[in-house]
Amino acid sequence: MKLPQGFVNRRNFLFEAGQGISGIALASLLNQDNLLGAACGGADAVNSPYRPKPTHFAPRAKRVISLFMSGGVSQMDTFDPKPALEKYAGQPLEGKGDIVVRQGHPGPLMPSPFKFQRYGHGGLPISELFPNVAKHADSLAVIRSLKGRSNDHVMASYELASGSIRMGWPSVGAWVAYGLGSENQNLPAYVVVYDARGGPFGGPSNWSAGYMPAAYQGTIFRSAGDPIFDLKPPKGIAPEQMGARLKMLDELNEMDLKKNPGNSELSARISAYELAFRMQGCAPEAVNVDGESEATKKLYGLDNPITAPFGRQCLIARRLAERGVRFIQMYHGGIGNQNTDTWDAHGNVKDNHTMHAAESDLPIAGLLTDLKARGLFDDTLVIWHSEFGRMPISQRGLGRDHNPGTQSIWMAGAKIQGGQAIGASDDFGYQAEQQVLNVHDFHATLLHLLGMDHTRLTYHYQGRNMRLTDVYGVPIPQIVKS
Amino acid sequence: MRFFGLLLVATLSVFSQDSFTHVVRPVLENRCLKCHGPAMQMGKLDLRSRAAALKGSGKGPALVPGDPEKSPLYRHIAGIEKPTMPMDGTLKAEEIEAFKSWIASGAPWEGTLAGPAAANRANDLKKLEQWTVPAGVREQWTYRQPAKSAVPRNAEAHPIDAFLKASLDKQGLTMAPAASRHTLVRRAYLDLLGLPPTAAQVAEFVDDKSAGAWEKLIDKLLASPHYGERWGRHWMDVARYADSNGYEHDFDRPNAWRYRDYVIQSFNRDTPFNIFLTEQLAGDEMDQTSYDRLIATAFLRNYAKVGFREKDNPQFRYEYLDDMIATLGRGVMGLTVQCARCHNHKFDPIGQADYYRLQSTLWGYVEVDHPLVPEPEAKAYETAMKQNAEQVKPLRDEIKIIEQPYREKLLEAKYRKWPENIQKAVFTPEKDRTPGQVLLANQIIRTTAVTPAEIDRVISVADRSKKDRLEAQVREIEKNKPKPIPVAMGITDGDYRFTPDGAGDEAAPGKGLKREVIEGSYLADGTRPYSVPASHFLYGGDMYAKGSETQPGFVAALDDGNSPTALPRPSGKTSGRRLALAQWLTSPGHPTTARVAINRIWHHHFGRGIVTTLDNFGKTGEPPTHPELLDWLAVEFQDRGWSMKQMHKLMMTSRAYQMSSEFSTDQNLAKDAANLYWWRFKQQRLEAEVLRDQIMASAGTLNAKMFGPAIFPELPQEVLESTDKGIWRKMADGPEVWRRSVYVYRKRGLPLPFFEVFDMPDQNITCGRRNVSTVPTQALTLMNNDWVIKQSARLADRVATEAGADPAARVKLLYQLAVARQPEAAELEKGVAFLRERSLSDLAHVMLNLNEFIYLR
After folding, report:
1. Has residue B194 been placed in a domain?
2. Which of A161, A196, B4, B496 is most deeply packed, by most CB within 10 A?
């Protein structure tokens, strides 16, 4: 009988079939007094799901910091000025076919309540909402023509996260963790920190591994206290007591392993305890910002109650980046009271965006400054985006409804040429018009910068080599050109 | 120039015209125009027409007819000049060659290119609609009817062993000896019930020295009600069962659990698999229907659903149908039929025509809540509700009249709070408003409401007492509303265009799906024969690119053409298409249904299927390791009346099932490290649900209560905060939630973290085989999770109570409760030594983390 081809290598994941590492390492770890410091950077990767994997070609970025502005940011009020809105203020938007709004009926065109100014050598126009980010104008590549497929928060968020508007598909972070592994085996490869007010629309499915193994899903880090659920034993169990339990466990599992020769799954599980044990020391260290200098804290706005929450997230993002975490997903704006706690400015775009920009502008600028100062900027890809843009017409005179027709996002770092605006929306900012880009193009670009060809990064499922970009996607030329 | 062009065309060779049509044009359209076409002209280059290509970019022409080496178009695709084009990957060598000779022959061109495939669409569509199965398909194993081949003759008496032994001998592999009786009893309990045996249950089997002891044990376990809880759960993975809608609102499905209970009961009753399947596809259409059969139709309705203003989003119906087809294809037929939604299947002989035949078969479906009371009672309920509403209406109208003057005043006050331009729009008389003011006023007026509470604050005493009196009357009448009747979420046939509004479905005034002018009703009442609304072939899967009207049917490669595609129902209320589908799937000649089912049963017993890709028997799946055995079992399964319980017993009485998992020889390892030939029993990591259940069973906390509405284990606050939609009821950590995991609420947007970390599949898509991963977060959960530690403390309490103070007795009982065996001498010694230093809780917690605890062996 012929052996089925590719039986073992195609279907089995490396970490299912361990490499026969024994649990001795755990025993020796348990004997160490101090797990911090050097131990957290180290990497015994053999048995780890996050073992680093080779790229397809030389990468421009080693990691991604994704800043997701939940609720939908208005392009006309941030990075895509539309003087025509002044001229036609109060008139209907005509000649564009049926205007599909999410709530109620279309209103008349509404100019931006915010002033724009040109910044940097590139003369990139940015609204007064982002005076600090604007100082980095020459580092930002603004994309003004990213078109989505849904005007529903959840579906649009899923599309940005996974390329599909449906539930159950692996998120881009999972693809990156699967494709590249991590540089640090003591931390998850894909970390998610969401807003203290709540998670983004659509919840945990946004960082799901879909049909891939659970190892690749995003791990939620809390921005205060123990970052990972179940990282530490509950109160009442001393570390020394847990150490004794683990030592006993290790010894019994070793005895058991001897009875089961050639069973690599069992040795992999022993190694998993070892990794877990190291994570206990390394994860809290990664999110602990106490040791940062006062100047750094101030840079991120930790000294101001308005900027402190997202500032802390941004500072943690930098710390995770330094420690080799591959994909760092930060959410700003969380479901609580949708109209005020996210960028979902149905009611009043001026109030809503003023508030959220004030919370996030300084921290994001601080992050960019800090990455530059520490030499991380050139090999880190920073993305700023949300689930969709908003309407150039008003909702009840002051607000703006959802608009997947176009949104403005920016990318920075990874040696991307800054100070440029890519693509364009129509005169009013209603629809992407020139160089219309879809989410697959965006994802193809992201993977390309990480050294991966989006057509070759595949995962076998349902009889098909699945891709993050399905059968679509072209890397955005102005971003990927070197 | 024009003259030159004509001359050129006249001298064309047939070959180059052909290469333009077949190679150059498709490449230009599909690869180049994205950046150099209608959407954008990167580098100012437009390749839509010959003229534009000749004009080229700012740097000169892109195309020099007759001279490929001077044509930048060729130089860039051939990589002579950088960057190599296209950006998203170089062309194939033969494509580059075709461009070269095409340019060399003068680069003949036809028309202006619009974009991918637009020109050929009509032609394409016709071809796709008329697609037929390629000749010779029936010779491939997947599409051939399974047939029993002779059982190999060798020393093995059991047919399964005889098949396996034949291949083991051929490979020179040695079979493992039998596992110990202690191992076997734990294996059987965890496998069939998902629960570990108690000490008494272990003893009962171990001490039974009679020849039929093993069979007796299997019979006993198959008769246990817990069997359905375990094996029903396997089916729920296929059925993508969940208790909530998913997506943004993740609405609760308050009756979903009835389907879960139906599945458990069906397994316990050993409903023949063909009937089980028929009930789920067409329970409402069967000759004899029943509440259970109506409940069963939830199978098709288990898709994740948007469920909010659905009427504004008619495209979702196609998504739900796609999910049904994917579930039927992968879960029942073992084929990825859903791949053929937008194009013919790339690997398997499945056409888009097959997809739309199946879609047409299902097209009549509508969601319905089947009343679970006799029809007269249901009718009476409906009438009573209607009457009640009618009685209330005049009273409510009267209240409105009283409130009206107050409402108007309050509204005006609200309008006065807006900025000036908005006030102006609202207060300008309708006929004098500018077009922009019309829109603005419309938005404000339609969305400004006054609540009864606001009115009550300003209403006069006299009016207030009038209103109160009327409201009291309303309340009195509403007290007589009938008690809600129990219902099941399911489906039946109807006309989806008339589906009544569900929660949140009321579209804003004037908004909503623009319906064609049609007459009809949601459900057929039987007075006129029901007919299914028309469905259409969709070009490229695009709902706006309709082809011909489709007819019901099946997957042609699996179809011998002998099954009807509709079985008209005497009631005339449904089409009988789904019943025909079920009959076809379960017909004796169907190539895959029985194979897929039996392979799944094998997978759950042995840890790996004979076809490892449980839901893909197509070209991209794995071929069977033992094709003759698979077919033999598939036929045997049908011969035994599709009885799953009989198949369990057949498999478990084989020697293969009873082998040791600890055995190994260097030779076996060298030849077949992956154990593909089944020379030893495969150890299996317990599934998430079994692990949770086993922890409670060991600790003695498990509440064996079956059925009914779901339970909600405690979740950390932060997890609850990650989503605020749908429900997660607060239930204290206690016996009420210490029930089996199959009863845990399945929320699509928020899987229970304990389950998720141990590879529970995504609940939104049918799942064939679960992933088995080993990750640090699993270790963290078992080490540190508060619930696990509390359960381990209860295990310690139990041991202290039952074993007394003697450390050796305690260690022995711990082993018995956790791993269903007595400790070996070394283990006993080690355990006792540990207890001298440490507490019993410490040791109990260690036991729940042992590899042995987490594996079925």
Report:
1. yes
2. A161
